[in-house]
Amino acid sequence: AVTAKMAALSGGKGWLRGWLPALQLLRRGSKAVTRHWKAMHFQRQKLLAVTEYLPPRPAVPPRCLPAHRDHPQEEDGYVRLLRRQVEQVFRSSRMVAVCQYNSMPDEDVVTMRYYLRKHNIEVKFVLNEIVRPVLAQSKYRNLLPLFVCRNILLVSPETRAREMLRVLKGIPQVNLLGACIDDTILSRQGVENFARLPSLEASQGQTVGALALLPSQTSSLLQRGPSLLTALLDEHIRRLRDTGAPGEPPQEQGT
Asked: In this structure, is the dihedral angle defined by the CA atoms of residues 135, 141, 146 and 148, taken in order, positive or negative?
C-alpha cells in the first residue's frame, strides 16, 4: 500500500519504485537475553577435580640445590676502553672537579673549553655508567653521590682552582659540585676556600720566615744575659779607673 501510494504521488513513474524497499520491519523493545549463568553440574565438578594435572615433585628439594648463578656477560671492549681512560684521568690529574652540566648551545661549549684550556684545564664528558664502577673500586668512592645526573669533569695536571672558579662564574649552566685536589676530596665551599690560599711559593716563604723567627728569638734571649753581664763589668771597671786604684778606697768629696 505504501509503495502504491508513492507510485501514485510520483505520477506513475516506475523508476522510483527501486528506491523504496518492498517490505519494512520495525522492531521495538529490548533484545532477548539468551545466555544466563548456570551452576556447573556436581558430576562435572568431580570429573574436573579428578582429571586436574598435578606436576610431579622433584627428587631433590629446591632448597637443597646449589644457587643458580647467572654468568656475567662479557663487557664490551669500548666500555673497557672508556673505563681505562677514566682511571688514567684520575691517576694523572692533580685536580678533578665534578660539575653538573645543563644543556647549552654548542657555541657556548666551545667558548667555555677555550677559556678553560688557556689555564691548562680540560673538559671531559663522561657517563655515569662508566664512572661509577671505576670510583666504586678506587679511593675516590666518596665522590659517588655526586654522579646522579649529567656531569662533566674539569681536569688539570695543576691546581688551578682560582682560575676555574673565575671561568665558571660566567657560565650558569655549569654548577660545581665538588672536587678532588691533591688526593683530597673537597666540597664546593672547600674549593672556594682552597682558591683563597696564597700560592705555593708565597706559602713556602711564609713558612721559612716563621721557622727562622723562632731560632733568632731564642738566640737573642740566650745572648742577652752575657751581653748584660759584660756591660755591667765594663761599667764597673770604668768607675774603678775614674776613682783611683783598685785597692784604695774612694776619696770623699768635699761639700
From this structure: positive
